[in-house]
Amino acid sequence: MNLKERGITVGDLLIILIIIITSTILIKSLGKEKKTTLNYINQEELPYKKDFYQKFI
């Protein structure tokens, strides 16, 4: 049957809700992974620059 003929059912609403929740969780988890990667890179660069400048002093 068509969606026009039967209308929106509870099953349709559940599927839409599951898709929305899954996509928001994936987007948030990917955002956190990028932030931790950037923080790790920054933490690694700081000691290197500090040692580099101390050699000249």
Distance between the termini: 80 Å
Structural class: mainly alpha
Work out the oligomeric state of the chains in this entry: single chain
Counting DSSP H or I runs of 4 or more residues, the number of helices is 2
What's the main sheet like?
A: none
Rg of Cα set:
25 Å
Strand content: under 5%
In total, how many beta strands? 0
Query: Overall pLDDT, averaged?
Result: 74
- Poorly predicted parts: none
Provide a concise account of the structure shown.
This protein has two helices and no strands. With 57 residues, it is mainly α.
Task: Write the SSE topology.
Layout: H1 3-6, H2 10-56
Features:
single chain, 57 residues, mainly alpha, 0% strand
Characterization of the model:
- The protein has 2 helices and no strands.
- It is mainly α and 57 residues long.
- The chain has one domain.
- The longest helix is centred in the middle third of the chain and has 47 residues, at 10-56.
- The chain is rod-shaped and about 45 Å long.
- The mean pLDDT is 74.
